[in-house]
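[retry 2/3] GADL1 decarboxylase: previous attempt timed out, resubmitting with same input.
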Amino acid sequence: VGVCKQEMLQKKNAILVDGVILNGPIMDSKAGEKFVEEACKIIMEEVVQKADDVTEKVCEWQAPETLKQILDLEMRDAGECHQKILQLCRDVIKYSVKTNHPRFFNQLYAGMDYYSLVARFITEALNPSVYTYEVSPVFLLVEEAVIKKMIEFIGWEEGDGIFNPGGSVSNMYAMNLARYKFCPEIKEKGLSGLPRLVLFASEECHYSMKKAASFLGVGTENVYFIKTDERGKMIPEELEKQVQRARKEGSAPFLVCATAGTTVLGAFDPLDKIADICEKHGLWLHVDASWGGSALISRKHRRLLHGIHRQVNSVYRLTYQGLRADSVAWNPHKMLLAGIQCCALLVKDNSGLLKKCYSAEAAYLFQQDKFYDVSYDTGDKSIQCSRRPDAFKFWLMWKALGTTGLEERVNRALALARYLVEEIKKREGFQLLLEPEYANICFWYIPPSLRKMEDGPEFWQKLHQVAPIIKERMMKKGSMMLGYQPHRGKVNFFRQVVISPQVSREDMDFLLDEIELLAKDL
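[retry 2/3] GADL1 decarboxylase: success.
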């Protein structure tokens, strides 16, 4: 570095300010391009080309302290050579969970879509921020087109929307938007002087509703959790009771959050009946369809979102009464494989409510005397300034596959789920919690040693220990990943989720065989 500095100083017109040479770039572009080329080769060989290879491990388990040593996490004063950095890239890939593996069933996302992946490569290389048309012309137009198409599938004649960093954020947006609609002055005057605001969500709702209530100052005690039936669906009669209770207490109800596809059981709330109650009491209805929203793409399965009344013609154009909701959260990165993260909040209102609620009118970004139509500067609808172009990966994938291809993904995932359910019924030792209506298959595995045990506290206590042991063994072996949890008084059970189009019938059979193998000595 010292030699280079001397050479620069000896050049004619060399400029030195505060000891820093300002002539020419300081980055070696050729070396950087070579590094990117070699790193991309590693990504292709170790990630993309192995994505559907079932002989590869899902994970290479290491304990945290061991992994810290392997990765050499320390950041030093001097940079390290490219070969060492490339080896770090290999290590990161090796010891990361392969969520694109056909036998990764652990979360509500899985698999790899190649078009979405390329879209992410493009946006990472361009490094855009989606707030004004001048800096992000393509991605703003793409987001507008995608939101319009998603609104069409919800069945609204018009609407608005924005992509957010996660369904949790979309739910928070919706809560704040409902509160702003109920009491617009809150944006400027704050919470003081307001009545006690109350919202309603089912016992099975996503935990983000509780976090949003805390974050927004509504308070977690003011979230009234509505009882659900044995399938995990909100009971409308219980909602009616709780709304009336809140009014008698002198509180001000302002929001109901229904769920279309609960996290654990995959339940869909009865939206029509809930919508009737919301209309009766003048409440904002938000539908958290982060998980289940993609069923709207399927003509066969969109009936799950009760509240969509439709007549279907020979292709995909539909005439809807529409989803009777004021807002909807929908995550294409889940069932449709758009890649994390890809999450939209869609709003039925088209009068600019989103912008009125969230705008701050920053003069350095949203000048009104620009040389183009400033209505395309949509960033003021967001609580963020910098914002990723998450709609682009969904758009490119949709362009490549068409609605037919997306529909096929949904239909196949749910057909595989049905296949697994029927296989579970045939096998000794496997017991369903309930018949699933979506892609969540919840079941217990009862080892041979417990099968003749009398049903009682001791049996359930022992069964509670089975799933964690099997999970530990499958992860240390690297054969697959499958989630488990206790839930609403039920001891630990497995929740298998089918999403990826790389998953086959053979993988469903393997899952059951592997559980039996891992638990044979329990």
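[retry 2/3] GADL1 decarboxylase: The CA atoms of residues 131 and 380 lie 7 Å apart.
[retry 2/3] clearing retry counter.
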